[in-house]
Design a protein that fits this description.
By secondary structure, this protein is α/β, with parallel strands linked by helices. The chain has a single domain, classed as Alpha-Beta Complex (Lambda Exonuclease, Chain A), CATH 3.90.320.10. The chain contains 10 helices and 6 strands; from the N terminus they run βααααβββαββααααα. Strands 1, 2, 3, 4, 5 and 6 form a 6-stranded mixed sheet that branches. A hairpin with a 4-residue loop joins β5 and β6. α1 packs antiparallel against α5 and α5 crosses α6. The chain is globular.
Length: 218
């Protein structure tokens, strides 16, 4: 695919909104490590990822529904789409409680795809929080749509540049499964990083003679 047509994975939108470096590690360097939070998320998605078409509360649904948008250059899938009489209603599953609006942007991106694919308006959807077993309805107003489109373009610019964003080294790093890969406390401090790089690339002292090669003569 030409670089100008580079598609953005929808999962990258929430990653980038929460932490651009986390997004880069996952989508540029293909780095991913599990911790208790990611394992809980994987277990919570088992049913929605199965594609089971069983109706939900009498409403027809599509689980693990593939999504795409040519207009915005997006691809991905929806955990669940309720096929209501008034139009499609996307539902995204999240393990923990709400932490900011980051999941809302990914859900809004799903709505943008559904509107293009089905030629129907999608004014709202919901985040299902597994921890509380409750839905939180999200309305896709103009402000949310505009911010989502901005994030899509920011992710695309990062993918095009192939440059890893800088580390943040704040409270978000505490529960991140990529802490050992990112090393935020090191790379976010230039002086400390230069000192470690200097120590890492110091040449080893060598001696002459047989000890230099470590080989014995016959």
């Amino acid at each position: 695919m030409p670089i100008e047509d580079l598609e953005v994975p929808m999962s990258a939108i929430e990653h980038y909104s929460y932490c651009p470096r986390q997004c880069g590690l996952i989508h540029l360097e293909q780095s991913f490590q599990d911790n208790i939070f990611t394992l809980r998320g994987r277990l919570a998605h088992q049913r929605v990822d199965s594609g089971d078409p069983t109706p939900l509360r009498g409403v027809k649904v599509a689980r693990a529904m593939p999504l795409w948008s040519k207009r915005y250059g997006l691809r991905g899938k929806a955990d669940l789409v309720e096929l209501r009489l008034e139009g499609p209603y996307p539902v995204d599953y999240k393990v923990g409680r709400r932490h900011g609006k980051h999941p809302d942007y990914q859900l809004c991106a799903q709505a943008l795809c559904l509107e293009e694919m089905l030629d129907q308006p999608v004014p709202k959807g919901a985040i299902y929080h597994v921890a509380t077993r409750a839905r939180r309805e999200v309305f896709f107003d103009e402000g949310l749509r505009q911010r989502t489109i901005e994030l899509i373009e920011q992710v695309r610019a990062m993918l095009r540049s192939e440059r890893l964003p800088p580390a943040l080294n704040d409270e978000r790093c505490r529960n991140c499964s990529l802490g050992d890969v990112c090393l935020p406390s090191v790379v976010a401090e230039p002086n400390r990083l230069r000192g470690l790089q200097g120590a890492l690339f110091q040449p080893l002292e060598t001696s002459t003679g047989d000890e230099e090669t470590g080989l014995d003569e016959d």
